[in-house]
Amino acid sequence: MVARYGGALGQKVNEIAADFNASQSEYEIKPVYKGSYAETMTSAIAAFRAKEQPAIVQVFEVGTATMMGAKQAIYPVYELMEDTKEPFNPDNYLAAVTGYYTTNDGQMLSMPFNSSTPVMYYNKDMFAKAGIESAP
User: Fold this and answer.
1) pTM of the full predicted structure?
2) What is the pLDDT along the chain (136 residues), one digit of tens a residue?
3) Are residues 88 and 102 in the same domain?
4) Residues sharing a CB contact under 8 Å with residue 23, sequence separation 6 or more, in sequence order
5) CA angle, 23 as apex, 17 and 25 as ends, to 5°?
6) Are both 136 and 117 inside the same structural domain?
7) What is the domain range of residue 63?
């Protein structure tokens, strides 16, 4: 079971699950919509306490510290990849993303799935006309 998004992002998660399910017969992913980010995390914590937690849950950035602090409730991605002998290179992600999900000793705890990266566009000519030499 995977706690997932609603709307367009939920449709994408459903597609990923369907593709995975069609690719093999040993495991089945059943996406389950659990509400907002906060509701999903609350639901996952309650499920863990009831010993009925999902195999995978998608937690928003604000919940990262909570999940990192719940050492018995999570299976860190670096351990999962080592234990299953799956190749995994955190350097394939933007450093700002991996840094957020990594311990102080460099171990990546969670898998960045759809981290947002803010981008600012500006008109350099308009800035120059306004006397601004570089973007903030």
Assistant:
1) 0.66
2) 444 455 777 788 899 999 999 999 999 999 888 888 889 889 988 999 999 988 888 888 788 888 878 878 888 899 999 999 999 888 888 888 888 888 888 888 888 877 777 788 889 999 999 999 888 7
3) yes
4) none
5) 95
6) yes
7) 1-74
Please calculate the CA angle 49-112-95 and round it to the nearest 5 degrees: 130
Question: CA 107, 110, 114 angle in degrees (round to 5)?
Answer: 130
CB 100 within 8 A of CB 64: yes
Rounded to whole angstroms, how far apart are CA atoms 81 and 125? Answer: 48
Which pLDDT belongs to residue 50?
94
- Give the pair of three-digit tokens for residue 121: 């566009």
Please check whether residue 17 is in contact with residue 2, taking contact to mean a CB–CB distance below 8 angstroms.
Answer: yes
**In sequence order, what DSSP letters do the residues of 6-69 get, joined into one string?**
-HHHHHHHHHHHHHHHHH-SS----EEE--SHHHHHHHHHHHHHTT---SEE---GGGHHHHHH
Q: Considering 37, 58, 74, which residue would you say is the last residue of a domain?
A: 74
At residue 5, the pLDDT reads 55
Provide the pLDDT for residue 4: 46
- What is the token pair recorded at 59? 């937690």
